[in-house]
Amino acid sequence: MSEDSAQPSVRPILDLVVLDCPDALELARFYAEVLGWELESDSDAEWATLEPPGGGVSSERPDGRTTLAFQRIEDWVAPTWPGGSHPQQFHLDFSVPVISEAEPPVLAAGATVHEHQPSESGSFKVYLDPVGHPFCLCGRP
């Protein structure tokens, strides 16, 4: 690595994590309910973005807070995790004080408990969002 490239003058900031889905607005509403975040006003079925507490669009997030966005994909195929032809693709981990206390509102929002639970210690639990993306509630030690 050259001396010039060792320390870039401008570092990227992770701005958005974008989830593909069949209806961006519908999935954004699910995650908005789970996280208690707001939907950006120009969100629609094609593209929807969540607004984390205290921050709007990326130019207003100078502290680097990452948010979630959702984009409609015409030929959407749900993940088949833990295997299959369309495995996990990605997953989100949400830190919670106590999994059993965080679970009821997540289920009420539309999540389901995944049949495969790989945590032997119970330190995390796997769920599926309404379109099949796996995500975890992770208990804080």
UniProtKB/TrEMBL annotation:
VOC domain boundaries: 13-140
Species name: Knoellia flava TL1
Family annotation (Gene3D superfamilies): 2,3-Dihydroxybiphenyl 1,2-Dioxygenase, domain 1 (3.10.180.10)
Superkingdom in the source lineage: Bacteria
One Pfam family linked to the record: Glyoxalase_6
InterPro entries named in the record: Glyas_Bleomycin-R_OHBP_Dase, Glyoxalase_6, VOC_core
Name of this chain's protein: Glyoxalase
